Amino acid sequence: TVLQGIILLPLRAVCIAFLALPAWLVASIATFRHHGKGSVPLKGWRRRMIQTALSSLTRTLFFIMGFQVKVKGKIASLLEAPIFVAAPHSSFFDAIISALTGMPSIVSRAENLSTPVFGTILSSLQPVSVSRQDPDSRKNTVTEITKRALSRGQWPQVI
């Protein structure tokens, strides 16, 4: 089993890299020439592309890493729960929840948006950005989450 681990580890790393590239491509296409840059929600084919393609790629990625997740019960719809909480969010396991729930918007540090490859993927989820340098950031974040929650389905769910 140790030998299997030694062989499978590099193979999994290669698979992760090959799944990150199509995810970046999907995110780039879905946000290409979108005039809002986070201030206007993605709609139509752009939103469906993010929900289906990125969700499928993320699920595949976690399956390759050895995670098999089963959902018990019914996931709340956007109109039932415009905001839902995943806690404690201290690891990459939040991505599993995102994939299972149709790639909702997230609350993220503004610095994460400038990360190569993953910044583009993150931007396609239309995150609520939090800036640690801005003293009004906490108030602005609450205002933005409230605006999205009261949009009656215009914005995706916020996790």
TrEMBL record:
- GO terms under cellular component: endoplasmic reticulum; membrane
A single Pfam family, by name? Acyltransferase
The alphabetized UniProt keywords are:
Acyltransferase, Lipid metabolism, Membrane, Transferase, Transmembrane, Transmembrane helix
Phospholipid/glycerol acyltransferase domain: from which residue to which, for each copy? 69-155
> GO terms for biological process?
lipid metabolic process
List all membrane-crossing ranges: 6-32
Record GO terms (molecular function): 1-acylglycerophosphocholine O-acyltransferase activity; lysophosphatidic acid acyltransferase activity
User: Where in the cell?
Assistant: Membrane
- The answer to whether the entry has keyword Cell division is no
Q: Which InterPro entries match?
A: Plipid/glycerol_acylTrfase
UniProt record similarity statement: Belongs to the 1-acyl-sn-glycerol-3-phosphate acyltransferase family.
- This chain's protein is named PCAT2 acyltransferase
Instruction: Tell me the organism.
Output: Syrrhaptes paradoxus (Pallas's sandgrouse)
